[in-house]
Design goal:
elongated, mainly alpha, single chain
Length: about 80
Amino acid sequence: MRTDITSTARAFKNYRVELANFILGTFKVNTQLLLAFSIIIVLLIGFGSLALSEVDAENGHVTHLGDKKAPRRTIQV
């Protein structure tokens, strides 16, 4: 049973490597690097915008809590 799992894992790994070589093997190294960095930059922009929207939503909740729920206290001198 153990050898079946190991051989299946090796076969899947080899398949993955062959598929990646087939897809990326047609491009030059410069094109592959440009594609990889472009994907990373797009992911960074996407995650950054998601984080900003989440922070903005949290700021709205905190502002609502401070304006509507907390009692106002003023100090008179």
